[in-house]
Amino acid sequence: MSTPPACPQCTLENTYTDGAQFICPDCGFEWSSEAPSADEPGEAAKVVRDANGQVLVDGDSVILIKDLKVKGSSITLKKGSKAKGIRLVDGDHDVDCKIDGVSLMLKSEFLKKA
């Protein structure tokens, strides 16, 4: 019997089969065993991880791990500030979110999953 492939979302090899599906218990991703996940080729390649290595997905809540100065503003985001319902985006900054009513784009290396 062959071993199941690594998860296309988090790239960990702790996967198992359930009928016609592969399941990753680490990130909860499920995909079909008949066809490789070539539906959206760019989507599976981009995995965003927080400062602790946890996989981030759209809708997660995150917490800042250090004080950050906002470019072009006098605002300083304080360590421990929480952002709910994040969106993952492509580009230099991975996360689009709102903290204290201000829309921001942040790098995932300054965040941890709440």
TrEMBL record:
SUPFAM superfamilies assigned: Prokaryotic SH3-related domain, Zinc beta-ribbon
Would you identify the family this protein belongs to, as annotated?
Answer: Belongs to the YjdM family.
Residue span, Protein YjdM C-terminal domain: 48-114
Per the record, the domain of life is: Bacteria
Q: Per UniProt, what is one Pfam family of this protein? A: YjdM
Q: What is this protein called?
A: Alkylphosphonate utilization protein
Name the InterPro entries on file.
YjdM, YjdM_C, YjdM_N
Q: Which residues form the Protein YjdM N-terminal domain?
A: 5-32
Species: Kinneretia aquatilis
